Amino acid sequence: MTAARCWPSMDMLRSEPMQLVQLIIPIESAHRAISYLGDLGLFQFKDLNAEKSPFQRTYATQIKRCGEMARKLRFLRDQMKRTGFLSSSWSPMGTNVNLDELEVKLGEYEAELLEMNTNTEKLQRSYNELLEYKLVLEKASQVFYSAEHNAIAQHREVEQALGEGSIDSPLLLEQEMSSEPSKQVKLGFVSGLVAREKSMTFERILFRSTRGNVYHRQVVVEEPVTDPVSGDKVEKNVFVVFYSGERAKNKILKICDAFGANRYPFPDDIGKQYQMITEVSGKLSELKTTIDIGQLHRATLLQSIGYEFEQWNLLVKKEKSIYHTLNMLSLDVTKKCLVGEGWCPTFATNQIQNVLNRATVDSNSQVGAIFQVLHTKDSPPTYFRTNKFTSAFQEIVDAYGVAKYQEANPGVYTIVTFPFLFAVMFGDWGHGICLFLATLYFILREKKLSNQKLGDIMEMAFGGRYVIMMMALFSIYTGLIYNEFFSVPFELFGRSAYDCRDSTCREASTLGLIKVRHTYPFGVDPKWHGTRSELPFLNSLKMKMSILLGVVQMNLGIILSYYNAKFFRNDLNVWYQFVPQMIFLNSLFGYLSLLIIVKWCTGSQADLYHVMIYMFLSPTDDLGENQLFMGQKFLQIALLLAALVAVPWMLFPKPFLLKKQHEERHRGQAYALLDSTEDDSFELEEHKGSRGHEEFEFSEVFVHQVIHTIEFVLGAVSNTASYLRLWALSLAHSELSSVFYEKVLLLAWGFNNIFILIIGIVVFICATVGVLLLMETLSAFLHALRLHWVEFQSKFYEGDGYKFSPFSFVSIGDDEE
After folding, report:
1. Alpha-carbon distances of 190 from 42, 133, 141, 276, 504, rounded to whole Å
2. Which of 392, 318, 385, 459 is nearest to 815 (CA)?
């Protein structure tokens, strides 16, 4: 089968023809069949077990099992992230992992990693405790050494003082030295580390609780220390508290516990101190070696997991989605088959049947799956086949509402009209080139950027890169028509048609210019810029152009309503909606567009405001100098009468004809039962049951038609006026660009100072990018969006359908658990 037969030519105007299908699949091949359908991605299943809770369904156990495996995979991903490993998108070829084997493997990996983490945590805590102990031994020995040094110095001073004193001094000294050891006061001490931010409070509490009967010394540790309990880097001080008595000791221990101070024993003897430092250093080196070996083993394990992680993750997600889909199928009476229903495009019939046959062969099933089309009156889902270029435009339409099944799709016209209306408001070919270059970067690097997380704003801009590209190209086109490059005109298509009256151009600002050559071939003549008549001329041009564009687009919307009515064979909408709407809109605003074109072609000075106002107030008065062509007065009267006739034409006939149709249909059903068979009567009862909820209420239909008529009549005026936003935003963009150029760039240039010029260029670039390329782009985008949603799509687009959401594995890798 060729690709052309599998995928017919793309038609975005109407959604793909859909069909409701019933699948009867043997249980032994059901899993493989659903998997193959997920690979195909063209079948949307209906939930036939909606009344059952998730725990009452057939495959609830398998889903729970997949959920547990997904939890283990999340654990492994967290471990890899903490270690700094990234799961590789590359996986070894030919490694078809069975789900049962994967479950066992994941359980083993989880248990091994948990055990490694526990052992590493214990070893790291011991290492941190020994590190703190070593610091205490080093810093506390300094306290004792300085205290001993001070004591010896004081003792020598006393000896010198006594030696120079009385004759009795040797006897007193001998008496003091020969006192009994039991009568000497023995001081205890507590040593450890306390957080530096708590050290002052710690010292104050010690002093107050013991009433000053302790001696407290602290030594600052220069580098932050890893706390054994929390594992965080903390700045700490080594403290030594000397006390006397058991009661004081208990108070000090309680205060240490309250402040989270880690206590460590400290020997009195200097020899033992050096011995302890040596032992602790040896243990630290051993622990460090053990921890490094454990980390290396853990890193090797995580690296081996990372090579196959994406494959495992995708397998678990696929299995989970398959069982979720299987739960939407119902068991046959014999409990040997699964029955499923769903929607699929008609062009995919052969592909789905081939997939089901392949699943039967691959699963060695004796019975094949049955594919049969069901007839239903349910509204099918809407499916437009789009590509990376058209998908963004279709999303703009879908944001307003998904098209009803087989309804005319505005997305086809939006591809051209949306960027064009944007460009009318954003017309500057310098700004358009900047937008195009920015979009070109996204398009050239789309393969790389599509796999990266860009943030919300950049992700939105990247998704609409082709929309922005079209907007930029149309902006370059309209910018060439407006002849604006960052508000500066250029003679790109020849010389200007106008020139000064004399060589000095002194009178150019008062008497104006004279035409000396042929008309400028493309766009606005560059001589218009900077003249006293520039603003009135461009205002008139852009305002009339906005009305013409608005009338054309609204007519397109009404014409599409005609094609919708013909497609759905609704003659009432053709004769009592399309025809009067076309007459009403074009009798007023189509006529205004005609007057604008005639005035442009003839160069008349007629006042179109006066013509349109007095067309309603005094239609029979002579037009005088405002007459543009012969017979204009009679044409205006005829158009006014046609517009007045079109209003009751829209309002009254349709509700009465709908009522008549309903009565005839009801009468036809009542008599149809006489000659019908049992099968026909059963179908008719179903038909009557389905329509029993759609009782015809004439008052509701009539009120709805009144609202629709008033909405269209008033909307014809308000929508036409709404298109004047094209003129307003185009003028605002042009004036802002001109202000930035003249008041920033040219002003800085006039100072003849390189420093001021650089500042002026930087300010000009920032203002252009921030205001004109970002804020003005967003503003023009939103206004173009409103014109499409309200003024254009409201004429024909119902947008009350629902999207075709097939079961597919394509987007399953992007979904987060």
Report:
1. 76, 13, 13, 17, 100
2. 318
Helices (H), 388-528: 391-400, 411-425, 429-444, 446-449, 456-463, 465-482
Query: What is the three-class DSSP state of 620?
Result: coil
Q: Please name which of 547, 717, 562, 565 lies closest in space to residue 643, comparing C-alpha atoms.
A: 717
724 contacts: CB under 8 Å, gap ≥ 6 = 543, 546, 547
Residue 164, pLDDT > 70, answer no
Residues of the chain with CATH 3.30.70.2520: 186-266
DSSP, residue by residue, 462-496: HHTHHHHHHHHHHHHHHHHHHT-BTTB---TTS--
Closest to 309 (Cα-Cα) out of 108, 97, 111? 97
Average pLDDT over residues 639-662: 94
pLDDT for res 366: 87
Residue 774 CA to residue 783 CA, distance in Å, equals: 14
Task: Tell me the H-state helices in 528-574.
Answer: 534-567, 571-573
Work out the number of other CB atoms within 10 angstroms of the CB of residue 418: 25
CATH fold label, 186-266: Alpha-Beta Plaits (3.30.70)
Please count the other Cβ atoms lying within 10 Å of the Cβ belonging to residue 35.
Answer: 19
State pLDDT tens for residues 181-229. Answer: 444 556 788 889 999 999 899 989 988 888 888 888 888 888 888 888 8
pLDDT at 675: 43
pTM recorded for the entire structure: 0.80
| Token pair recorded at residue 122 | 């214990």
Dihedral angle at the C-alpha atoms of 400, 405, 409, 411, nearest 10 degrees?
50
Please give the structure tokens belonging to residue 255.
Answer: 């205060």
667/162: higher pLDDT: 667
Average pLDDT (428-443) is: 96
Contact (CB, 8 A) for 566 and 739: no
Nearest to 356 by CA among 787, 43, 13, 774: 43
And the tokens for 149?
A: 């040094």
Buried b (16+ CB within 10 A) or exposed e, 767-792: bbeebbbeebbeebbebbbebbbebb
> Residue 29: which of 363, 384, 324 has the closest Cα?
363
Both structure tokens of 78: 């967290």
What pLDDT does 179 receive?
A: 47
The whole-angstrom separation of Cα 273 and Cα 105 is: 51
373, β-bridge pairs: 21
pLDDT band at 551 (very low <50, low <70, confident <90, very high): very high
> Does residue 817 register a pLDDT over 50?
no
The reported pLDDT for the residue numbered 681 is 37
